[in-house]
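Milestone M4 deliverable, item 7.
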Amino acid sequence: MAKLALNKSALSKEKHRKASYGRYLPSLEMKQKQLLLERKKAEEALQQHAHDIESLEASVYQKLPMLAVANIQMEGLVVVESFKLAEENLLGTKVPVLESIIFKRAEYGYLIRPHWFEELATSLEKVMHLKMEEQVLRIRFEKLKSAARTITQRVNLFSKVLIPEAEENIKKIGLFLSDQERAGVVRSKLAKQKKLVDAEGGQR
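Output delivered:
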């Protein structure tokens, strides 16, 4: 770390640094507040999705109790054929958005298809849709969490390190210059007194 220069130029520089940090800090704090709010919204959306999935699965098992039978195979009944993700710029943080999903149902002959097939397939699609949304929401939450952590670190750097450091430097330089000024006044007075004494001595 460079040694602090104790002069008027350094004092001016430190005052400029403090003013710059002071102008920048409010915008950082505003962004921090907004990101923390978005992070909270993403967390709440995740919790709501988890609740929705649990409720939907419970509803499916209530409507279709035959699903509790171990030999009923549901694998491959509904699969994700394709999906489309978009990107949203949220306060400078790029987060994913699930735009659409296309499902594909297994082909069963009408005569061998159980009467509850359509309802089951529709319910599975709803559950899978919610679970994919949940995955995207989790990514959004993690990205916003990381962005909020980064902006909080910056706010702390400015408010707890850089600004106090500049203030401390201003104080140190100010005290030093004040001491130098007082010492200069004292030396000036002593010099005048010495001249007077020398003058009086010369007259004698």
